[in-house]
Amino acid sequence: MIHTFDTVVVVDFGAQYAQLIARRVREAEVYSVIVSHQASAAEIAAHQPKAIILSGGPASVYADVAPRLDPAVYELGIPILGICYGAQLLTLQLGGDVGRTGVGEYGRTALSPLTASITMAGWEEGHSVWMSHGDSIQTPPPGFTLCASTAHSPVAVLEDLDRKIVGVQFHPEVGHTDDGQGVIRRFLFEVAGVTPNWTRSSVIDAQVAAIREQVGTRRVLCALSGGVDSAVAAALVHRAVGDQLTCVYVDTGLMRKGESAQIEATFRAQFAIDLIHIEAADRFYVALAGITEPESKRKIIGELFIRIFEEVAAKLTEVDFLAQGTLYPDVIESGTKDAATIKSHHNVGGLPEDMQFVLVEPLRLLFKDEVRQIGADLGLPAAMVWRQPFPGPGLGVRIVGEVTRERAEILRAADAIVLEEVANFGLDRELWQYFAVLPAVRSVGVMGDERTYAYPIIVRAVTSDDAMTADWARLPYELLERLSTRIINEVDGVNRVAYDITSKPPGTIEWE
Ligand code: XMP
């Protein structure tokens, strides 16, 4: 993309810290990119960064396979902030000393400032920072000032303001460090002199310009899945090229209650987008009849979606481009990608791989929180923008056992009650996901004076930062009681409600 944003390169030394740092930089309205620690100085310089941040990481700088930074990076004259492992590494590479003391520091730690410093402007004795390290810096490299220490870190902050290189042993990117964002901001603005021009309106303007340049006067197709990403991608493309955009929405029969109506109301009525709405529930129920194995169900749903999408696309002969809601975390080229596949993820609403389209990916540079804010700025309804993540195969992965129309209706009705009541209790933005699951067992109950033999509904609600790990949410008893009463009273075919108290791991968020 052509852009004029001041750029910060975050070098990823592993673990999960680099993304958080990149997001904090973006929160300071500065554009950031993540590169692997294997990147050469030339590759880093190619981003024309105004500053470089070296992330933390899980290794010891003394480990055999400890990731290193190309030493030529220090010769580029670009301001550098090293965080935790990054601070130790720059210490070692610039001639200081890092010790294997055998005494680590983990968690909240009191910092003792020793000199005035830009990094710690206004901090007092005992300032609270978050530590997570085994080795510790013993002596700063030549030219550096030792600015602060802690009980187990003789050098917790070091600065060389002539070369504009700063190291902090603590993690300024986590919320547990008081004024951590201040450390990042002061480095960016006071040490490195970066201009904060990554604002929402400038991001939208840049993306609109880029889409116009890519697409020209030709036509773009976009599959709406009901999720935030495809909705924002469509709204951006529409802002850029108006009625050159056609959206396709396939109702698979596995969507949430009211989803089709909301898509109609938003895209056809509000935005006046050319919307092709395919009612395909019957085809999905037929294809899924008798199938109970989770991976087979996922495959069938994904493949049928692609087939239907191809049928639609085949009739639209003038379309060259396909818009997709790919996000930045999906495209980061990092040396530290976690490769284990627990489930085959299908992005229903995503790309048929062998189709002859050129991709338009206007969200490729953005994190999820930025996508939501931009969606709101573009006029998408709050309920759509703040919607919880929803899996590509939809309710299909929450119906354990065979998917039938009847069972999908039961789950859809129960799920709608969960969504409504969680919002009524004001918890909808605090929880990562909250939904109903329909298992394949029935149990005996009694309603009125009659014996029942019906399905239970399992309520699942989790907190999480990134879906990689999750904890079951400690929902208030009043909410659980309300869910139980309403689901049993209002949903035919259900006589019991249970709450899933499994975290991830060992569970996954979805049931299939
Ligand atoms: P699990 O169940 O593996 O889910 O803990 C992690 C996150 O991914 C979502 N999910 C999917 N998203 N296509 C998607 O786009 C899929 O096939 C899919 N399966 C699970 C899930 O909702 C959770 O947020």
Structural write-up:
A hairpin with a 2-residue loop joins strand 18 and strand 19 (450-463). The protein is built from 14 helices and 21 strands. It has 3 domains: 2-191, Class I glutamine amidotransferase (GATase) domain (Rossmann fold); 200-385, HUPs (Rossmann fold, 3-Layer(aba) Sandwich), CATH 3.40.50.620; 399-499, 2-Layer Sandwich (GMP Synthetase, Chain A, domain 3), CATH 3.30.300. The relative contact order is 0.09. It has 512 residues and is of the alpha/beta class. Mean pLDDT is 93; it is low at 335-341. Helix content is 31%, strand content 22%. The chain has helices spanning 17-27, 41-45, 85-93, 180-191, 200-215, 228-241, 259-270, 281-288, 294-315, 328-331, 368-377, 382-385, 405-424, 477-490, and strands at residues 7-12, 31-36, 51-54, 80-83, 97-99, 105-113, 127-133, 136-139, 145-149, 157-160, 165-168, 219-224, 245-251, 274-279, 319-323, 358-360, 433-437, 443-447, 450-463, 471-472, 494-499. The structure holds xanthosine-5'-monophosphate (XMP).
Shape call? globular
The CATH topology of the largest domain: Rossmann fold
Q: What small molecules accompany the polymer chains?
A: xanthosine-5'-monophosphate
Which oligomeric state applies? single chain
Which structural class matches the secondary elements?
Answer: alpha/beta
In whole angstroms, the N-to-C terminal distance is: 38 Å
Strand order of the main beta sheet, please?
2-1-3-4-11-10-9-6-7
The tally of beta strands, per DSSP, is 21
| Helicity range | 25-40%
